[in-house]
Amino acid sequence: MKRQLSSNLLKWYDSEKISLPWRNSANAYHIFLSEVMLQQTQVNTVIPYFQRWIQAFPTIKDVAQAPLDHILKQWEGLGYYSRARNFHKSCQIICEKFSGEIPNNIEAISSLPGIGPYSAAAVMSIAFHHPLPAVDANVLRIVSRLHLLSAPVSTLTGKVASLLSEIIPKNRAGDFNQAMMDLGRVICTNRNPKCDICPLNICCKAYAKNLTHAFPKKNAKPLKPVYKIAVGVIWRDGDILISRRKEEGLLGGLWEFPGGKLLPGETAENCIVREVQEELGVVVQTTEFIKQIKHSYTHFSIIMDAYHCKYISGEPRCYQCSDWRWIEPEDISMLPFPKANHKLFQHAFAKEELC
Q1: 81-126 tens-digit pLDDT
Q2: Is 35 one of the catalytic residues?
Q3: Domain region containing 328
Q4: Are 167 and 257 part of one and the same domain?
């Protein structure tokens, strides 16, 4: 049965595999980049970003030598920006320690920033043919149905990796892993799986018992918190003041309009004045409401009120940010900003300076 499972899967993959830009390349850099971009991001979203990235940075050396602003601008909109920062650092390490070549060694690649067991196994198997199973959410779902694994899905990675290690073919390990990924995306889906046409249905215990809907066992999801935010578009002589987030943490390294979370009982206007003072040491005065923006992240949502502000006094300093600039409004498109800030651009700069 184990041999039949692997054989059926690869036969299906050979006839139905999805054509993707990185699958048409034997370049380990392309494979490495694709796996980083695909972390928690859908394939169709990644494709145009991958293609633009390769044009902007044809080699690992190009990535390593690029300023962080260029890296984040190219990544802008793809989300999970720590991936971009970690990939940038990884390429620098690869150039310094491995002569610009991705190491053909599981321990070495696992030591790179942001590379966990799944990404390491995927790159090693696809680029270098190591027989290592790559276990992501799709693979967890498939194997939990095949074997009726009743434990919560978050606890199954080790068990699933062990089961797959017994059947992954040494001569086609990369194809096996990619076949499992494709199967989870298009056949063994979370909802309404296409069991009747699944190449593994003869081996699937959940299908035999009509229990595919019950697997995998889900973890209870906590309620997503909502935060109230206020930001200021600060004007001085036709220029606007922007600040850069510290690299560690959410949206690290991106530029933004200064501001932050409202304190209990605080108005948006007072929040902006306080946050700008704390973040940059600058005194401002709010002048006109621009727009309220609602934006959802993976684990929380924000409601952001934006105001035009007038610069009053103070020389900007990096108290709670990593950098600051006065820029002309038309230059804002050259820098990487969070999506929530992007939603303000057309409203904030739709007319002449107001202050």
Answers
A1: 999 999 999 999 999 999 999 999 999 999 999 999 999 999 999 9
A2: yes
A3: 226-348
A4: no
CA distance readout (Å), 50 to 34, 56, 74, 165: 7, 10, 10, 30
Taking 70 as the pLDDT cut, the residues of the chain under it are 1, 350-355
Same domain, 246 and 310: yes
Q: Which of 35, 256, 275, 279 is catalytic?
A: 35
Do residue 168 and residue 250 come from a single domain? no
> Prior bond to 216 cis, omega within 30?
yes
Using left for φ > 0, alpha for ψ between -120 and 50, and beta otherwise, residue 226 falls in: beta
CATH of the domain at 324: 3.90.79.10
Flag whether 354 is in a domain: no
Cβ atoms within 10 Å of 188's Cβ, excluding its own: 28
pLDDT of residue 350: 65
47-61 residue pLDDT tens: 999 999 999 999 999
Residue 85 to residue 335: CA distance in whole angstroms: 15
Compute the distance between CA of residue 301 and CA of residue 148 in angstroms, rounded to an integer: 35
